[in-house]
């Protein structure tokens, strides 16, 4: 059974940092693209970042480029999202997601929700002083 569990959210002051974790079970994430999304109250879900299965190629939304870093640890079956220089507008529930099948070798990931089949339950990130 495919399962994704996010952790690491919390309350942080503006300018602070958090590291989110997305731990997978029921499959080996080495061959799968993993993406992070977020949804703030009253707003649509937004693709934040993704990491490809091959060459660990990454994508970042313009709003987080230079501040967020996605990485994977295949031994721990976990993908991370390091978030630095956090802003109040980054407040949202953050979700990780994966696709229903391994990504073809060399395929670049895309942080579009329609491409992902399995989702975690989300972790709340609140940036406030």
Rg on CA atoms, Å: 14 Å
Query: What is the string of SSEs from the N terminus onward?
Result: EEEEEEEEEEE
Segments where pLDDT lies below 50 for 5+ residues? none
The main sheet comes to: 7 strands, mixed
**Termini separation (Å)?**
40 Å
Class from secondary-structure proportions? mainly beta
Strand content: 35-45%
Tally of helical segments: 0
Structure description:
The chain is mainly β. The chain is 0% helix and 44% strand. A hairpin with a 6-residue loop joins strand 5 and strand 6 (58-60).
What's the SSE blueprint?
Layout: E1 3-7, E2 10-12, E3 18-25, E4 34-39, E5 46-51, E6 58-60, E7 68-73, E8 78-83, E9 92-98, E10 118-119, E11 123-127
Parallel strand pairs: 2-11
Antiparallel strand pairs: 1-3, 3-8, 4-5, 4-9, 5-6, 7-8, 9-10, 9-11
Question: What keyword list fits this structure?
Answer:
129 residues, mainly beta, seven-stranded mixed beta sheet, four-stranded antiparallel beta sheet, 11 strands, 0% helix
Kindly summarize this structure in a few lines.
The protein is mainly beta and 129 residues long. It contains no helices and eleven strands.
